[in-house]
Amino acid sequence: MRKAATAALLVLTLLYPFGVYAALDHVAPHWLAGAMVLLSLARAVSTRQGFWYLVAAGAGVLGLSSWWQGDAQAVKLYPVLVNAVLLAVFGWSLRCPPSVVERLARLQTPDLPAAAVGYTARVTALWCSFFVLNGTVAAYTALYSSDATWALYNGLLAYVAMGVLMAGEWLVRQHVQRRHRLEQALGASNE
Fold this sequence. Notes:
It is a single chain. This protein is mainly α. The protein has 2 domains: 1-76, no CATH class; 79-191. It has 9 helices and no strands. It has helices spanning 2-14, 16-23, 29-47, 50-69, 73-76, 78-95, 100-108, 114-144, 147-189. Helix 3 (29-47) runs antiparallel to helix 4. The longest helix has 43 residues, at 147-189.
């Protein structure tokens, strides 16, 4: 039951831009703000991850802003908030290792070689750059683009860009791992 609820919340979060787009002309901004806050709180409670608690706190600020101003502009800034929190989490992990990507890598390979630790730090920095760029585009679409463009970018194109980055990093990682294995084999044969 808990996994199903978490999966449902994930789907709702992914579909958030399209839900907001569909509701913009039909639902008062304060109700959209309330839904945004409830969704982020539900994600925080269901995952019990500090990241989502930070997002929920930020969503509360955006929700209050939307409620106060009586428009949905702040509700459309939710993807910017998510990128900002991700940037903060990934960036902080670079300052206070292990990096986020290193932690994820150690789930599969607990004895990560030193070269891999350096690689994971570079990948974490790459993700930081992605969050800056993605958050900037998300902010631009929220502030200066049509609602349809905002929904298209934040509900589809941002996820495609994320998938391309993940796939590209996976391909590079395969190459780096093959090269590392080859170097180890050559080093062992020279001994």
